[in-house]
């Protein structure tokens, strides 16, 4: 029966039993004699895989049943039920409420399901209820608050949800309350403060919120308070210091803030203090040093600041001190381990701001583990480090230690972990290191160490991991490296090692990861490599290894990552394909030959296949389409031929597809548009034909698209404008025609645009000036582009190279190009540009402007004076010239007509004259007008000659003026 009230009177709870009697009459009529029947109902509700309940039968005395305890000297009075840890499943039946004499029920560590029944509230004599570590669901029934005699309630590690019922505060005899590892929420009920006998309160790993209620101070008998891994907030209450019997306090991984209360120093019996993973601030209170019984202190992963104020001179029992991940600064105090009485065995200080030397640690003679990593410690590793003779783990990585590794390190005979990576250590590895027979992990990577790897290292036969990455070790890999039979990881990458890989390496049968990349190793791969049956990762790239691969490699069935790139290996790929679990196969820049074996497609988990820069030939196998998890496929710069197989369309997760530098034919497949994850597509330098498919525009994540040096035709599809993430577009050296689509403006992440050596025509779209990230190059050279250079190109302020050469561009160079202050290469040669080169571009060589006959000014020859006037565009000049020709023709016709009229009149006068006088008078009159003083020809003939003579050098206004005068003279003559 569900009870919704948060505060339920005891009287009402007591009356529940009467209500149960009405509803559950069989249970209420139970007597001690009915216990066997009740237990048989329990048996029928359970699945018993181990048969522990097989003896439960009415033919035997119930007190003899497995897991049953009876009251001594009494018959059938069952007081105990213990079936813990037998793998039982099923549900607890309501009939269990009939075990009225029961005092202890333990059904823990099974697989029981269903709810915790409210009928358990009827078991008035129950003192212990253990249901933890099952799969029980539902809420905690408030009826458990009726169990007045209950002393132990442990029902954690189930799937319970909801809030902790405040009614549990009525179980006044409770000593242990365990509700950890459930899904309980809400706050800690204040009513629990009434449990004055409570010794253990364990609420770990729930989602409890709010803070620790002040009423909890009433639990004066507490010895163990654990509320770790919840979402509790607020300050740690100071009343915790009043729990005089408290031995263990665990508040880890909550959201407590503020300082650590000094009152914790009153907990004289405290042995365990865990406050890790909160938001605590302030300094470590000095009062902690009063806790002489303290054995474990963990204050890690907070925001505690100030100096390290712990002193084991007072904390004589302290064994574990964990202060990692705080804001502590200053040096390690000299009195951390004053005297010889310190018991400190484990010191964890990583991830603070501590500095100075670590000399003070040498006083902590009992230390077994030191983690002082990720600080700012300086100086050398003390030569007398061997004073810490019991040291097992030494982690000093990510500091600023200098100097060499002292040879005394070889005296730490118990050392198992030595982690010194990412410091400034120099010098050699001391050969004394070979005395560390128990050493398992040796991390020296990212230092400045040099010299050879000592042969004595091979005496450390317990070594499991060796990492020397990023140093300056030279010489060869020790010949006896095979002595390290337990070696699982060998990382020697990025050194200066030379010589062959020792054949003895094959004796390291436990080797799982081998990294020898970035060295100067040479020679062939030893046949013994085939013995490394556990090998999973092997990287040998950037060496000078050569020869065909040993066939024994085919026996390595556990290989997942192979990277042999940048070597001189040759022959077939087959020896590398024995494993069907390959995830990475990287062999770029070698001399492998033959075809790609179809068996490679067995590795269905392959994510990277990189075979570029080899001598592989034949068709690209269609079986590669089975590698549906492939993200990178690089087959570039080989001799592959044939079409791009359509089966690759199944590789939907491809992010990089590089097939450039082959002899592939056919078209660019339209199915590429379905590869929505594609970030790089490079099909350049092949023999592909046909159009660029518009579907490419569907690859919305594409960053690089290179189709250059093929035989593609047609126009550039405007759908490319949908590639708004595109950084590089390279369509050079094809047969593309038509206009450059203005839609490229939408590719506003472009920083490299190459469209040269095509047959593109029309004007340069001014929209290209709206590509704000264009930086590396804009190359439109060797096309048929015409018109003026758009002034908007001056807005490409990041541009470093601009090549518009070998087109049909005309007009002047726009002054806006002066804004391209990052430009260091400019080529406008081979066009029809005219006018003066803008002065700000005069620093570019003359070759940048060559082949433009009408250009002048530095770095070209100086402009003529008349060229200072702005040159008119070619189209305007053509119109003016045509106009002059038409007007000149009209003038000529008019003159011819006038001359004919004059001549006709003169003939008429001459013919009608009867004597010389009239002739003389007439001749004088008309002759003077026609030819006598030349005035008529001055008005008519001279302007025509002038106009014709100035046709190519005068402006349009002059030509029109002369044309007007000629027309006026012609009209006068006619009249």
TrEMBL record:
Taxonomic superkingdom: Eukaryota
Location of this chain's protein in the cell: Membrane
PANTHER family the UniProt entry points to: OS01G0149700 PROTEIN, OS01G0162200 PROTEIN
Name under which the protein is recorded: Leucine-rich repeat-containing N-terminal plant-type domain-containing protein
Keywords for this protein: Leucine-rich repeat, Membrane, Repeat, Signal, Transmembrane, Transmembrane helix
Main subcellular location: membrane
SUPFAM superfamilies: L domain-like
Positions of region (Disordered): 943-975
Membrane topology: Single-pass membrane protein
Pfam family, one: LRR_1
Domain Leucine-rich repeat-containing N-terminal plant-type: 37-70
InterPro entries (alphabetical): Leu-rich_rpt, Leu-rich_rpt_typical-subtyp, LRR_dom_sf, LRR_N_plant-typ, StomDev_PlantInt_Reg
